[in-house]
Request: fold
Amino acid sequence: MRERQDVILGGGLAGLSAAYHLQLAGEDHWQTYERRSRVGGLARTVDVEGYRFDYGPHILFTIDKEMEELIRDLLGDNFHAQERRAYIYHQSEDLYTQFPFQAHLYGLPIPIVRECLVGLTRAMEKQARGDFDPQNYEEWMRGFFGDGIAEHLMIPYARKIWTVEPSTMDFSWIGRRVPTPDVERIFQGALTDEVDQVGATAHFWYTKQGGIEPLPKALGERISGLNLDRTAIRLELPEKRVVFEDGDIVPFDQLIYTLPLPFIPRFVANLPPEVKRACEGLRYQGIYCVNLGIDREAISDKHWIYYYEDAFPFHRLSVPANFSPDTVPAGKSAIATEVAFSEDRPLDRETAVEKTIEGLIAARLITADDTISLVHTEEILPAYVIYDLQHASNVATIREWLLQYGIRTAGRFGEWQYFNMDHSMRSGKRAVDEIVAARR
Ligand SMILES: Cc1cc2nc3c(=O)[nH]c(=O)nc-3n(C[C@H](O)[C@H](O)[C@H](O)COP(=O)(O)OP(=O)(O)OC[C@H]3O[C@@H](n4cnc5c(N)ncnc54)[C@H](O)[C@@H]3O)c2cc1C
Reply:
């Protein structure tokens, strides 16, 4: 039997950040195990026939100064700050408005603008009377922005991306994710197009070369004790042992788990019933990425576009060449679309590509005469955590139970939160801070 180790499971950004910050804290004996032959997890980039696609396009933005410093340091010269060009397509009107919808009503038909502004005013009156006590995400949208904005865009879009009714969702995740411009700015954006961008992604960063993967790659190069191609298959508790696919058994003292929380029952036998129930209660959706290479230059000047109408299978498409020209061969374009699926809305793999192409033609992004020289698909599951109304209590039950065995969970799927890359890196560091504080 091996000696006890301190272990990190998963070499995505959370696991790598944990390993890096442990080293900085002088804890340089930790071992990180990653099942793939490359680090990065969701923040990897795939190269196909001269095209580069992230696992769902990944842009960088943060208000976390410490993570910003780390990201800038990791990317060095391979860093490109950009101003967002993000839009919403309205097929019913055949027009684009700028993202976010509520801050750029200008250009929509007058009756829709009127409905949105009247709804907003009524919502504000209610808020002023103290009549704002939303119990779910739909009530939050209606109560915060009013019925017009909620019904014209936010509710249909929420159904599309989350695959479930927003009335069955909690809204604790919103934070800065749903841009919440002030009323004056909403009115300004209804009267003119000459307004500043709002929201966390108004300015974002991407690499000049290599897609998003140079970020985790650079972090991986800074850490020692990295074990690639090592798949954990079991956690033996209370013995505190990790069993790997290759038969190796590693006893651990402390462990940072960055794999999906709902997979705990696959790893741990004989879970207490309440923990098993909590794991089974966690809900998520997946993203089917349909990536296309088109034999035409400069297919769009936009970074990304949202599609809330049912005519389109995808809820978002991105134009990777506008993030970085390095992502497409000379003279070509690429389109990366994202189709959400879940138990509530199963994915039809047979027709997803065909329907996506039909949708792109209907949206007039491409024409029937365009040559599609590459079709590349990736399935991400889980992709987004669904915040149902039991989310917080289920997550707390599982994490508290694991902690008694020295297992801390971190990252988007370990903490089971809507985390971006910066949050996942922060989460890895948070686990380290706790470990270091506990040891002292
Ligand atoms: C479609 C999509 C788009 C996104 N866009 C953005 C964006 O624009 N900007 C942004 O900031 N964030 C974005 N994110 C979020 C971002 O990808 C995540 O926050 C971050 O990459 C998560 O890192 P992580 O380490 O927590 O998890 P992961 O990246 O999932 O890492 C977990 C690691 O564990 C490994 N692993 C799994 N099972 C085992 C096993 N049994 N044994 C050993 N290792 C194992 C995996 O291979 C993986 O490397 C997006 C996410 C998705 C799904």
The chain has 14 helices and 18 strands.
